[in-house]
């Protein structure tokens, strides 16, 4: 049985997120910048940023592989829509900071 996907709460009707290429020869990685919010129930809004590892950037990492990979939750990435699991959404909401952006590498989001 096919499960209906839940759209973003604001009904923005966002287009699907499409990954751009990163320069692996330039030692680049892609990380997520999660926008802060004081309300833990707010939807996840974030931006994907390409960083050069040679610059020794500071970021956290979350390798998520728990639970089923049912992509039933929508987050906003660069003003586009990306579907993730309920468990990953819960983890991002829990880790998100109230007053400052969180820079984090998440395999499910950062690897296309």
- N-to-C span: 27 Å
Order of H and E elements: EEEEEHEH
Strand content: 25-35%
Instruction: Give a count of the beta strands, DSSP E runs of length 2 or more.
Output: 6
Provide the gyration radius in Å. 14 Å
Taking pLDDT < 50 over at least 5 consecutive residues as the criterion, the unreliable ranges are 1-11
The residue fraction in helices comes out at 10-25%
Number of helices: 2
Structural class: mainly beta
Mean pLDDT: 84
The global form is globular
Largest sheet: 6 strands, mixed
Query: Main sheet: which strands, in order across?
Result: 3-6-1-2-4-5
Written account of the structure:
With 112 residues, this protein is mostly beta strands. Helices cover 12% and strands 32% of the residues. The protein has two helices and six strands. Strands 3-6-1-2-4-5 form a six-stranded mixed sheet. A hairpin with a 2-residue loop joins strand 4 and strand 5. The N terminus is likely disordered.
In short:
This protein has 112 residues and is mainly beta. It is built from 2 helices and 6 strands. 12% of the residues lie in helices and 32% in strands.
Provide key terms for this protein.
mainly beta, 6-stranded mixed beta sheet, 2 helices, 6 strands
List the helices and strands and how they pair.
Layout: E1 28-34, E2 45-52, E3 60-62, E4 71-77, E5 80-85, H1 86-95, E6 102-106, H2 107-110
Parallel strand pairs: 2-4, 3-6
Antiparallel strand pairs: 1-2, 1-6, 4-5
